[in-house]
TrEMBL record:
Domain Alcohol dehydrogenase-like N-terminal: 24-147
Domain Alcohol dehydrogenase-like C-terminal: 187-307
Cofactor(s) of this protein: Zn(2+)
Protein name, entry field: L-idonate 5-dehydrogenase
GO molecular-function terms, A-Z: L-idonate 5-dehydrogenase [NAD(P)+] activity
InterPro entries assigned to the protein according to its UniProt record, in alphabetical order: ADH-like_C, ADH-like_N, ADH_Zn_CS, GroES-like_sf, NAD(P)-bd_dom_sf
UniProt entry keywords in alphabetical sequence: Metal-binding, Oxidoreductase, Zinc
A Pfam family reported for this protein in Swiss-Prot or TrEMBL: ADH_zinc_N
Lineage: Bacteria, Bacillati, Actinomycetota, Actinomycetes, Micrococcales
Length: 347
């Protein structure tokens, strides 16, 4: 079968690899759609994503959807009870918790913080966990999430990044009736706009250096848009800030925009090494600065919200075939292209 495989820095290929075998306790999914993520681009551009470094070829892709093609005999009963059969439309929770670990009681339910998590398309552990940018993918039955009626498979591939955004907004606490600043209107930021509106935020302000990104944020529900590169000024005294750019130089201004006693959530990936950032206002304004990492099971909430009318289509700016995936990666990596989420038709 064909797959998108990264072999190292600047070495990305669409190539033939062996078809997966559906084990007795597994499900084989015929992949249909995949969304290119920043971590996919990082593996291609640098051979690493954060602290995860490539040591072997890796099939990329964790934002995916497809249809059930084969069900292992030992998985059949459990799936039937969930209404899942051959041909069912599904997306997948990309995480698999591994190992026996003792964790603090207050984080036991926060499975995203488990010490060892294998994740689609990740080089964090050996052997690497292969991703879903391929014709077929064998998965555990519990990873499947049924795509609700009215949600397309193309949209369902965005349930994973939408879950990341929902988790980030949830980390801020109750945002109902509050003013929320989302800094960085890339895919996660734009989805955080939608997540904040869905959670009842009274006003959501999006900030970015790209007018094209801000246009998408507005279509995702932002009440106001600010472009500092064009003379725009960040708001003052917002209740909550969601920092989605991951740009260290942006931190000082975003922190200064949060009211005294407010909350700032960091969902944008910061560099793994030392950085220079203006953080003094965290102390003097007594701001709660919280991290946000992946998600627990908000992928199910994401699908429900899409089914109830949250429109993620403005995010999907480009579409390529699997054979054209390298061109799709070029588009996704080039902000001047106006791209947000580049979708690969895997089927």
């Amino acid at each position: 079968m064909q797959a998108v495989v990264v072999h190292g820095k600047d070495d990305l290929r669409v190539e033939d690899i062996a078809d997966p075998v559906c084990g007795a306790e597994q499900v084989l999914v015929a992949m249909e759609w995949g969304g290119i993520c920043g971590s996919d681009i990082a593996y291609w551009k640098s051979g690493a994503s954060g602290t995860a470094v490539l040591s072997a070829p890796l099939v990329l892709g964790h934002e995916v959807s497809g249809t059930v093609a084969e069900i292992g005999p030992d998985a059949a009963a459990a799936l039937a009870a969930r209404g899942i059969g051959i041909g069912s439309n599904v997306t997948m929770h990309p995480a698999t918790l591994v190992g026996e670990h003792q964790v603090p009681a207050d984080t036991a339910d926060r499975t995203n913080l488990w010490p060892e998590v294998r994740y689609f398309g990740s080089a964090a552990f050996e052997p690497h966990e292969q991703g879903g940018f391929s014709r077929l993918r064998a998965v555990r039955p519990e990873q499947l999430r049924v795509v609700p009626e009215g949600v397309s498979l193309k949209e369902a591939a965005l349930a994973e990044p939408f879950a990341v955004a929902l988790h980030a907004v949830a980390r801020a606490g109750d945002v109902a009736g509050k003013t929320v600043l989302v800094n960085g209107a890339g895919p996660i930021g734009a989805l955080a706009v939608a997540a904040a509106k869905a959670a009842g935020a009274a006003t959501v302000i999006a900030a970015d250096l790209s007018d094209a990104a801000l246009d998408i944020a507005a279509r995702m529900g932002a009440d106001q848009c600010v472009n500092p590169a064009s003379g725009g000024v960040l708001p003052q005294d917002v209740d909550v800030a969601i920092e989605a750019s991951g740009a260290p130089r942006a931190l000082g201004g975003v922190i200064a925009a949060v009211r005294r006693g407010g909350v700032m959530v960091q969902v944008g990936n910061l560099p793994g090494g030392e950085i220079s950032a203006a953080l003094g206002n965290i102390v003097t304004r007594e701001i709660d600065y919280r991290g946000s990492y992946r998600f627990v099971d908000e992928i199910s909430e994401a699908l429900d919200l899409m089914a109830s009318g949250v429109d993620v289509s403005p995010l999907m700016t480009h579409e390529v075939l699997l054979a054209e995936a390298l061109a799709g990666f070029d588009l996704a990596a080039d902000r001047s292209s106006g791209s947000s989420k580049v979708m690969i038709r895997l089927g």
